[in-house]
Amino acid sequence: MRQVKDIDAFLKKLHYFDKKFKLFINQNNDHLIVEYPELCGIIDEYSSFIINHDNEKQWNNLDKSIEILPLVENLRSNSSVCIQIMEKHRALVLSHENEEITDYFRNIEDCIEKEFGGFQITSQSKVLLVGSGPFPITLLMIAERTGAEVFGIDIDNEAVQLGKHVVNKLGSQLSIQIDNKTVRELSVIKQITHIIFSSTVSCKYDILDQLYDLTNKDVLIAMRYGNGLKSLFNYPMQEVDEHKWYIKEKTVHPQSVFDVILYQKVQ
Ligand SMILES: C[S@@+](CC[C@H](N)C(=O)[O-])C[C@H]1O[C@@H](n2cnc3c(N)ncnc32)[C@H](O)[C@@H]1O
């Protein structure tokens, strides 16, 4: 009886987030939204929900029936649209506001710290981020802390323009280049030593497959992903072609909104 009640409460919460995300997306005509503090609040609440161990239990007990799957898909894609709105707003107000950093962004910054585990990026590295976003905090942190040459690509041209604006404001002295290009179009791709995938890039495993022929033999891939409850916020891990890529390291970070797998080429 208790279990049914807990699952009911869990489902109710999922519907609550679904409704909130849809509301923000419908209200968002331009990116300077008055509801920004509320949006940050709901994303922070969602981040805490995703990493809450008790909710993991409810998720595991949930019957993943046909009715639940569209809700999960909606939550994943709409939460990622909301993050995009939030990042665009954060990029636009950068020049004239001393903005409080949200728990979500703090969590992402902690994730970046842990990303490559023992595989240190050095000043000799060339790092590519697929899905750099309008507020490319990953690019800035890596370039600043390691001195590496850093590249970002994004399919959203507005995200690319805002990303360049943020880099100009916060890291104009750093070696960071952002482009609206595919991995195939990047002339530097053969020299790239490390590649990071944003977890909200839906076709990240298709791109990983293409990268086998495009990159050098020692390239190291950090794939951000989220399985189980975390798949409400991230695209999950998938099988890879075992003749192309193998898992070098897989670490789960219970307190982070996404986890990371490191892949390397099968030689
Ligand atoms: C907002 S960032 C989110 C960063 C977040 N920390 C993460 O790890 O997912 C995700 C970016 O990926 C971009 N994106 C989505 N699909 C993509 C693709 N196929 N190629 C390049 N960028 C993509 C989106 O436009 C968005 O700007």
UniProtKB/TrEMBL annotation:
Alphabetized UniProt keyword annotations: Methyltransferase, S-adenosyl-L-methionine, Transferase
Pfam families referenced in this protein's UniProt entry, alphabetically: NAS
Domain of life: Bacteria
Molecular function terms from GO: methyltransferase activity
BP GO terms, sorted: methylation
InterPro entries reported in the protein's UniProt record: Nicotian_synth, SAM-dependent_MTases_sf
Signal sequence range: none
The protein's name in its UniProt record: SAM-dependent methyltransferase
